[in-house]
């Protein structure tokens, strides 16, 4: 049976070293650069004619813009639009990386915890920096909900602090675990097909079962690939909203 | 198979170095992944915030402006149309009022002319009636004057038939005169 973990291996395509640090150009780097080029030049190409009545590609580009802008406005209001480039970059980067990972044999960058942790860290650090820069110490009201009786306040504040600091963890692990588990499951079912086809006689016919499951799972994984990008972006908007309006 | 397992078992430290660790969680992979993530995401953020997103925003805003301008123009033209329509209706009402005034004046003028004509004709007819009555009166008087002569003739004829005697007209007249004189 093929190793379902093999697909997550990092291959060093161009070994690089900077003062003892390993900064090799890997298969992961290749897909990140690919996503960067695809998004940037895809949008620039789609918007090349700046048509008043958009064509197909321009409609897609404007649709993506309006989709993310809608999320930002709904959660943060018009003043949240200063985070729009960040939120848009996060959404498109995750979505394209997830989708590229759905191509058989291609690498899924978001199935590595270090990458999703970095994505979550960007959001977490942005919330803290902007929160204090904009509200000063008032930002700490985030941990002190109003209208809570004094005798339960310490408990509530403790819960709020813990939930705040566990955000980057859940934010990153949710995306990482979804992509990882989905791809392992797909690989395992695909492995069953090969195993059953290699078996003797009537057992070959049973291969239809994992094939059906793998097909259905592929459709599900496309949904998950989009949904996880959406969920990550939605949570980003909610967290950034705390930086703008800490007083619940 | 067993030999292989044993072989691998003996080489566990070496094997662990060789990617036996779970790659998504392997710290050896962290630096190259994070370095290239930082590079590509920074580049993506730069390209999005400087070029791609402003371009899309400009197009969307320009379209919104254009639609607003067109709607405003349509609103203005609609107002002008309504003004023109009101002016037209006012002109129509004025014209109607004028027309009915002229008609009334004409009717009154015609009526007064007709009245005058009728009065004139009636005057003429009255005059003619008076003339006719005068003529009738004259004829009647003349006729009455001839009556005695006819009576004399008749009387002479009667006398001649009854007596067989010829009497002159003068004698008859003389005889009748007292009667006529009554």
Could you describe the 3D structure shown?
The complex is a heterodimer of chains A (248) and B (182). With 248 residues, chain A is mostly helical. Chain A has one domain. Chain A has helices at residues 27-46, 56-76, 84-101, 113-135, 153-198, 208-244; strands at residues 12-14, 17-18, 21-22, 25-26. In chain A, helix 2 (56-76) packs across helix 3 (84-101) and helix 5 packs antiparallel against helix 6. Chain A starts with 11 loop residues before the first strand and ends with a helix. The mean pLDDT of chain A is 92. Chain B is mainly alpha-helical. Chain B has one domain (29-176). Chain B has 4 helices and no strands. The radius of gyration of chain B is 70 Å and the shape is rod-shaped. Mean pLDDT of chain B is 85; it is low at 1-19. The A-B interface holds A 5, 8-10, 12, 16, 21-26, 28-29, 32-33, 35-36, 39-40, 43-44, 47, 50-52, 54, 58, 61-62, 65-66, 84-86, 88-89, 92-93, 111-115, 118-119, 122, 176, 180 and B 19, 22-26, 28-38, 40-41, 43-45, 47-49, 51-53, 55-60, 62-63, 66.
Instruction: Report the total helices of chain B.
Output: 4
**What is the radius of gyration of chain B?**
70 Å
- Helical stretch count of chain A? 6
In what order do the strands lie side by side in the largest sheet of chain A? 1-4
> How many DSSP E strands of chain A?
4
Q: Which term fits the overall shape of chain A?
A: globular
Task: Look at the helices and sheets of chain A and give the structural class.
Answer: mainly alpha
The SSE string of chain A, one letter per element, is: EEEEHHHHHH
The total number of structural domains of chain B is: 1
Beta-strand share of residues of chain A? under 5%
Task: Compute the CA-based radius of gyration of chain A.
Answer: 22 Å
* Main sheet record of chain B: none
Please tell me what the overall shape of chain B is.
Answer: rod-shaped
Strand content of chain B: under 5%
């Amino acid at each position: 049976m093929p190793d379902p973990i093999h697909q997550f291996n990092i291959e060093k395509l161009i070994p690089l070293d900077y003062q003892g640090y390993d900064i090799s150009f890997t298969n992961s780097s290749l897909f990140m650069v690919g996503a960067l080029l695809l998004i940037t030049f895809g949008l620039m190409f789609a918007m090349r004619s700046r048509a008043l009545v958009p064509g197909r590609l321009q409609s897609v580009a404007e649709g993506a813009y309006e989709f993310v802008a809608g999320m930002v406005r709904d959660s943060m209001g018009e003043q949240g639009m200063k985070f729009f480039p960040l939120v848009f970059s996060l959404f498109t980067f995750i979505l394209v990386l997830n989708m590229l990972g759905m191509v058989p044999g291609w690498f899924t960058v978001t199935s590595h915890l270090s990458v999703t942790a970095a994505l979550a860290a960007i959001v977490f650090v942005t919330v803290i920096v902007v929160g204090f820069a904009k509200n000063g110490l008032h930002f700490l009201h985030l941990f002190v909900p109003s209208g809570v009786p004094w005798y339960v306040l310490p408990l509530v504040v403790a819960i709020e602090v813990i939930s705040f600091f566990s955000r980057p963890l859940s934010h990153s692990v949710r995306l990482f675990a979804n992509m990882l588990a989905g791809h392992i499951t797909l690989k395992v079912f695909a492995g069953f097909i090969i195993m059953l086809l290699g078996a003797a006689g009537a057992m070959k016919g049973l291969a239809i079962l994992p094939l059906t499951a793998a097909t259905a799972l592929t459709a599900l994984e496309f949904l998950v690939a989009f949904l996880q990008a959406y969920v990550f972006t939605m949570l980003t908007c909610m967290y950034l909203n705390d930086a703008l309006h800490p007083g619940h | 198979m067993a030999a292989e397992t044993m072989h691998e078992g003996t080489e566990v430290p070496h094997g662990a170095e060789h990617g036996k660790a779970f790659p998504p969680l392997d710290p050896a992979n962290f630096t190259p992944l994070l370095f290239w993530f930082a590079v590509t995401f920074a580049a993506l953020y730069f390209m999005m915030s400087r070029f791609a997103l402003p371009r899309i925003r400009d197009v969307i805003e320009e379209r919104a402006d254009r639609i607003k301008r067109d709607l405003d123009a349509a609103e203005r033209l609609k107002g002008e149309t309504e003004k023109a329509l009101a002016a037209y209706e006012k002109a129509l009402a004025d014209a109607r009022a004028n027309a009915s005034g002229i008609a009334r004046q004409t009717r009154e003028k015609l009526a007064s002319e007709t009245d005058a004509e009728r009065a004139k004709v009636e005057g003429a007819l009255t005059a003619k009636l008076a003339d006719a009555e005068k003529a009738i009166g004259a004829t009647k008087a003349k006729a009455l004057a001839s009556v005695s002569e006819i009576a004399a003739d008749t009387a002479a004829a009667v006398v001649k038939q009854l007596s067989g005697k010829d009497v002159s007209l003068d004698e008859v007249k003389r005889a009748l005169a007292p009667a006529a004189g009554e």
